[in-house]
Amino acid sequence: xxxxxxxxxxxxxxQVAMLxxxxxxxxxxxxxxxxxxxxxxxxxEIADQFDLGxxxxxxxxxxxxxxxxxxxxxxxxQRLYSVNYEAIWEGLQKMRFYIANVMAGRGNxxxxxxxxxxxxxxxxxxxxxxxxxxxxxxxxxxxxxQRQP
Length: 149
Hints:
Blueprint: H1 3-7, H2 12-23, H3 26-34, E1 41-42, H4 43-47, H5 54-66, E2 70-75, E3 78-83, H6 85-105, H7 112-115
Antiparallel strand pairs: 1-3, 2-3
Helix pairs in contact: 2-6
């Protein structure tokens, strides 16, 4: 048993834990998968796709947002959510790196190639990201583009 990890877990794994917490529910996975690349969806657009109460859907959206999986852009009174592919990619890369190191330490030869690599900061999902346009449904805010999620 690796008790050292329990007492002082690697810092990177906190982000991975948050990612897995967010992805650990089928409804939250569907919310992520329903987004087209670069698409922003409102709470109503998301909630309309489920046979769940709006409060339940908002809870799932909040978990995804709080764990960095969704981005929020406020546009007037509307809240528009998009998938943070970079955060998902980075978390999965960190987990892959951790697993490769563990497997390499146990004498598994194939994953040792992966253990020598640091997680790549360049995401291959850049092509999925489209520039975000203006507000929809007539809601406009002059500072909406300057706000950070």
